[in-house]
Design goal:
Arc Repressor Mutant, subunit A, two-stranded antiparallel ribbon, D-Maltodextrin-Binding Protein, domain 2, about 325 residues, 11 strands, alpha/beta, rod-shaped, single chain
Length: about 325
């Protein structure tokens, strides 16, 4: 197969456009002898004559015109390739995998990726639902590029406490108290979290959500007595409705009007959880990853404080 030299093909294309070797040389900032040498070399390479004498000038042969038809197609395709590659360089094309915990997907991930599809149709994404603690393992394993997790406290700067990841806070999510509807404090005028210090509590066995619950109660001045272990919101709310204990419920979970459950805002000591984005250290400089991070930040800013979206009984 012929080893094509695009520079020689472009010289041939210029000769067809400008008509003479001298005009071609001037247009390409070459000498006339260099133009003649490039065309002679191309002719030898393809094995057919590309130029023929025409008085004191030269003109293209039929073979040269045939070659130029293919050259135009090749050059046009290369232009398309360059444009597509520029899209990758600008973050407008490529593929990014996003790992997120369940309650972040409808409120943050879906709006962010929807906006990305409209802005950068060449940038594709894949969502991987995972537990909040699991996203760091997925990042380390290279299975996702961006992770959404939870923290009891806001990350201490862009990196947080682990140099393997770059973390930034996206959203502060208020936590409300879920009580059985018949609970003695269900209709209290001003519920405080510490009013529930003697109650049985329902929360997860490990991971960020357990840490967040324990830290919130510690901030209120007590250690929660864990009566039941659960991390699924539906299971937690069903147990609360059955009178088996109390729990903290994030606003992003959007669990309005649950039969048998009174959702209350702890006024004096309302706890919050921090929704954070995480990438492998240095990966945020990739244009595609940066585009996803910007979209998530925009979605979080647009969401604002989730409490305006949910009804509460106070």
């Amino acid at each position: 197969m012929t080893d094509w030299d695009l520079r020689k093909l472009r010289v041939l294309r210029a000769l067809e456009e400008f008509g003479t070797v001298r005009a071609t040389a001037e247009a390409l900032c070459m000498t006339p002898s260099a133009v003649s040498q490039q065309l002679s070399s191309l002719s030898q390479q393809v094995g057919v004559a590309l130029l023929e004498a025409h008085g004191r000038r030269v003109r293209l042969t039929d073979a040269a015109h045939a070659l130029l038809r293919h050259t135009d197609i090749v050059l046009a395709q290369l232009e398309r390739a360059e444009a597509e590659l520029e899209g990758f360089a600008r973050g407008e094309a490529g593929h990014v995998r996003v790992g997120a915990f369940a309650t972040a997907i409808p409120s943050l991930v879906v709006p962010a990726l929807g906006a990305l599809r409209r802005t950068y149709p060449g940038l594709t994404t894949k969502v991987h639902q995972a537990e909040a603690a699991e996203v760091y393992d997925l990042l380390s394993a290279g299975e996702i590029d961006v992770g959404l997790s939870l923290a009891a406290q806001a990350p201490a700067g862009p990196v947080g406490h682990d140099g393997r990841y770059d973390r930034r806070e996206l959203l502060t999510d208020p936590l409300d108290a879920a009580l059985p509807a018949h609970h003695r404090l269900a209709d209290a005028r001003a519920l405080r979290l510490r009013d529930l210090s003697e109650e049985p509590w329902i929360y997860g066995a490990s991971g960020p959500w357990r840490d967040i619950t324990v830290a919130a109660c510690a901030q209120a001045g007590f250690v929660p007595r864990q009566a039941h272990v659960a991390s699924d919101w539906r299971a937690i709310l069903d147990m609360v409705a059955a009178g088996m204990g109390v729990a903290l419920i994030p606003r992003l979970a959007a669990v309005n009007d649950v039969p048998g459950v009174s959702l209350r805002v702890p006024h004096a000591d309302q706890p919050r959880r921090h929704v954070v984005s995480a990438v492998r250290s240095g990966a945020g400089g990739r244009p595609q990853v940066a585009a996803v991070l910007r979209a998530l930040a925009d979605a979080a800013a647009g969401l604002g404080s989730p409490n305006v979206q949910l009804r509460r009984t106070d």
